[in-house]
Automatic annotation (TrEMBL):
Protein name, entry field: Reticulon-like protein
Domain Reticulon as annotated: residue spans: 10-201
UniProt key word Iron: no
Keyword Transmembrane helix: yes
Bilayer topology term: Multi-pass membrane protein
Organism whose genome encodes this protein: Bombyx mori (Silk moth)
Gene Ontology cellular component list: axon; endoplasmic reticulum membrane
Annotated localization: Endoplasmic reticulum membrane
Transmembrane stretches, start-end: 26-59, 128-156
A Pfam family per the record: Reticulon
Gene3D superfamilies: 1.20.5.2480
UniProtKB keywords: Endoplasmic reticulum, Membrane, Transmembrane, Transmembrane helix
Length: 201
């Protein structure tokens, strides 16, 4: 149930169901990423932690003074957070580990298949992708790509939702064209899975 709640929260953020929360998440993420681009990870973590600790201490002192002046006993201002459950259950940890292992095994299998040219056409397409990535890497560094990805996470899903019909139609045309070209290449270069299948026969 906790996982479903987390998924709904993420979906509501990237689809801007609540503009204030989505804007705050986008802005906070961008600020953190820009800070990481300018400073070391250790410095950013230290400054963010120091800022959070300073805010917590200031708020705690303010509430203590307020309680002393008003002669009230409201207790610790962060009591609800101190009593909140933050531990990860063994079942949840096992589920996450199993999911991560499944994804890792699938990635290793796919990379082995591509690098050892099990299917020539798929390996050629993978080579074209790697070649394109060399140009991407020449223009952007890793943190810049992460910043662009963070912005895309908060813009592309909403843009797709607003223009779903047009985007789906264009994607279908592109997919049909790619499938047509792939079929022609497979017919012209009878290697890969089909050739291996004929050999087995």
């Amino acid at each position: 149930m906790g996982s479903d709640s987390a998924d709904v929260t993420l979906e509501s953020l990237i689809y801007w169901r609540n503009a204030a929360r989505s804007g705050a998440a986008l802005g906070a993420g961008l600020a953190l990423l820009v800070a990481l681009a300018c400073c070391s990870v250790v410095s950013v973590l230290a400054y963010v932690s120091l800022l959070a600790l300073s805010a917590a201490v200031a708020f705690r002192l303010y509430k203590n003074v307020l309680q002393a002046v008003q002669k009230t006993n409201d207790g610790h201002p962060f009591k609800w957070l101190l009593e909140a459950e933050v531990s990860v259950s063994a079942e949840r940890a096992q589920a996450l580990a199993a999911a991560a292992t499944a994804h890792l095994n699938a990635a290793l299998y796919e990379l082995r298949r591509l690098f050892l040219v099990e299917d020539l056409v798929d390996s050629l397409k993978f080579g074209v992708l790697l070649w394109c990535l060399t140009y991407v890497g020449a223009c952007f560094n890793g943190i810049t790509l992460i910043i662009l990805g963070w912005i895309a996470l908060f813009t592309l899903p909403k843009a797709y939702e607003m223009n779903k019909a047009q985007v789906d139609a264009n994607l279908e045309l592109a997919r049909a064209k790619i499938n047509e070209i792939t079929a022609k290449v497979r017919a012209a270069v009878p290697l890969g899975r089909r050739a291996e299948g004929d050999k087995d026969k």
